[in-house]
Amino acid sequence: SRHFMQQLMSCLQFWSCCCLSLTFLQLLAVTAALPPLLSSGDVVWIVSVIIPVISVSLVAAPTNLAVMNQATGKNVVVLNKQIFRYVVLYYLCKFIPSVVVILLCGGLALASFCRDVASQHNSSCIYIYPSEITIVYKNSTNYDGQRSWEGWGDHYADSLNAVQNGIAFLIVLYFCMISISFVHRMYQLWTKNPLTNRWWASSVFVVLVLQVVYGSVSLSGSREASRGPGLKDIPAWLWLMAFIWPFVLIPLNEVIKRREIRVNVRYQKRARLEFGTKLGMNSPF
């Protein structure tokens, strides 16, 4: 039961950090004056399907026999600077770098699309938004005559949808890579293979396949005649940067995990010392 509760705690911690990362991503996108990098449907899909599947699979890790030798401290929850520092260093630092990389990929992809549109139509590009001289007819029933605003909103909605689907896949991929450090919390990657948790390995494969299917269905629902650039127009160097990041992310998280393990080892020594001291003080001998 102690092993189950530890794995359940890891599950809830990973779940909450993923949801918080999505919030940070959308907030940073608004702060940087970018369009939403995830549509409302993408957010609902990731929060209600992808994250729960990965998180729940963490509970199925093989039983750690060493858990019975761990000392338990007092169940005192006090929010202070030390707890805040611990959460920031050992939880948020595993997710925030990926959020920044995703934000850069989304912004650079939109900037590349904007330059392509500007060169094709001899128009200007304001920040990452294409600007065209349009004629608006008040009583027109034509779609082109009723465009509400310049940018990605109407004329190039399919381009924005393509970027959002690409960002959604990167988020799912990065969450899968981050979850590696949550499979065996007290062991490094080279000490205990995360693939020993077969439920987690199967879940990672399933969510990646589901995300590809979801993105394909979303892209197939685009307008018949797409007028703007799509995924094939994203520069190769940007794809390379996006898919190289997981090879940096895994070692980075293992370094953070190593520091986290050291902190937990010090906590175990302190808990044993405190227990031994109190036992000696209350002993009748």
TrEMBL record:
Signal peptide: 1-33
Residue stretches spanning the membrane: 43-67, 88-113, 167-187, 199-217, 237-256
Keyword Membrane: yes
Top-level taxon: Eukaryota
KW Oxidoreductase (keyword) present: no
Keywords tagged on the record: Membrane, Signal, Transmembrane, Transmembrane helix
Name this polypeptide is given: Uncharacterized protein
Organism phylogeny: Eukaryota, Metazoa, Ecdysozoa, Arthropoda, Crustacea
